[in-house]
Design a protein that fits this description.
mainly alpha; two-stranded antiparallel ribbon; two-stranded parallel ribbon; 6 strands; globular
Length: 428
């Protein structure tokens, strides 16, 4: 049965490498991707890896295991999400999102039970190999994002899930100044904020790995260091070109938490390397900002109409979420049915681009699946943080993730976001 163990490993590394890509078959199209039903290539790879993993586990016979409290919390979360399906106006969409959620749980299971930082012989995957696979796939996204911003154009390629983005078209994410509309970096993702969030996770993982490397012994160690440096500085540029305020803030918080971690380690060489990395990061940021300072001021300020509209809409979304929660506080309006519920309130048969999820994962979860689902999720995060084998970079990743969850919705409103969420939880 070692064949299934190796097959699981290779399938999973391939899945992680392709994870940042959006190749999918749209089964039921919709005006927004929150309401479409699609089959993702990465979902298929992950399901195959899970099946191989379970076959190998069963072949090894029964083993007594201690059930971690995180599994009780996840069972509660899954149960209340399932109950919310019965309140969904669009049952098919809710069922699809439920199945996508179960795939996310399967991803967490693979990482939680099959990955290890050390003792690789007794595990399925090396976390270090997983990180390098993820960063490799993300690096291509970063290069593509830089190309999109510098050329102010993008190209479509359906086999990789790439779409065209025209800065002159309404609905395209841009930075608007008196000089015109500037296309933000999308990469191959649905929105620049999603690319920004992924880059933040990748940058924090790379920063930690760079700081802890002490000696460059051998070809592999040297190659890994070169790759990490290339990834870090290219991704830092790409992150700037997303003009995602939430991602900028998340990276800042994550880097500060990492600094605190290295100070507490009392390893002056590791701390020195990290401070040097922060210095060069700041220098690179200044270099990037200088030619585009007007775009930065426009994005951070609220003087221009587009930015005022963005801030106003966020307030409206909070009010809409409050209304849905008051109407269905215990079991929600149904998983994936947030915008459908808003459309129903307006007397519309289907949601339009004007109906958007609240930009807060916690409120979105409460709105769609109820209070008990939210409490189960918070308990899951609590016990995950308390687990004995928590990674050293966990607090930095969680701090950045908290910012992303408080100021955006894609980590729960999209099937892709659910995979990323459980991928990060599994890594830490």
């Amino acid at each position: 049965m070692s064949f299934f163990k190796k097959l699981t490993e290779y399938l999973f590394y391939l899945f992680v490498f392709l994870l940042p890509w959006q190749a999918k078959l749209i089964w039921r199209p919709a005006d927004t991707n929150f309401n479409e039903i699609s089959l993702y290539v990465t979902h298929g790879l992950l399901i195959l890896a899970i099946i191989c993993f379970l076959i190998y586990k069963v072949s090894q016979g029964n083993r007594r295991v201690r059930i971690n409290p995180v599994w009780y919390c996840l069972f509660g979360l899954e149960t209340f999400i399932y109950i919310s399906l019965w309140f969904a106006p669009d049952t098919l969409l809710a069922l699809y999102r439920y199945l996508a959620f179960l795939v996310g749980l399967g991803l967490f299971y693979l990482l939680f039970e099959g990955a290890a930082s050390h003792n690789y012989e007794d595990s399925f995957f090396s976390k270090l190999n997983i990180i390098y696979a993820f960063l490799s796939g993300l690096l291509i996204q970063a290069v593509l994002g830089i190309y999109q911003f510098l050329t102010q154009s993008s190209f479509a390629f359906k086999w990789l899930g790439l779409a065209t983005h025209d800065p002159a078209a309404l609905g395209t994410s841009v930075v608007e100044t008196i000089t015109g509309r500037w296309l933000r970096a999308y990469g191959g993702l649905d929105h620049p904020n999603i690319l920004g969030g992924l880059l933040v996770i990748g940058l924090l993982l790379a920063a930690y790995q760079l700081a802890k490397k002490k000696m460059l012994v051998g070809v592999r160690a040297t190659s890994e260091s070169i790759f990490l440096f290339v990834f870090y500085f290219i991704s830092l540029f790409a992150l700037f070109f997303t003009f995602s305020r939430g991602a900028w803030l998340a990276l800042t918080v994550g880097l500060i938490i990492l600094l605190i971690h290295f100070i507490r380690q009392k390893d002056r060489w590791m701390l020195g390397r990290y401070i040097a990395l922060l210095f060069f990061s700041a220098a690179l940021a200044v270099t990037a900002v200088f030619p585009y300072y007007s775009l930065v001021f426009a994005r951070l300020g609220a003087a221009l109409p587009l930015e005022q509209k963005s801030l106003t809409e966020r307030g409206v979304y909070l009010g809409q979420a409050e209304g849905l929660i008051k109407n269905q506080p215990w079991f929600g309006v149904g998983l994936g049915n947030y915008t459908k519920a808003l459309a129903d309130q307006k007397g519309l048969s289907n949601p339009t681009v004007n109906e958007q999820p609240v930009h807060d994962v916690f409120l979105l979860l409460w709105s769609e699946s109820g209070l008990f689902a939210l409490l189960s999720f918070l308990a899951f995060v609590f016990f995950l943080i308390k687990k004995d084998r928590r990674e050293p970079f966990a607090w930095a990743i969680l701090g950045a993730l908290l910012i992303l969850m408080l100021f955006d919705h894609w980590l729960f409103s999209l099937p892709f976001g659910v995979l990323i969420l459980f991928f990060v939880f599994g890594l830490i």
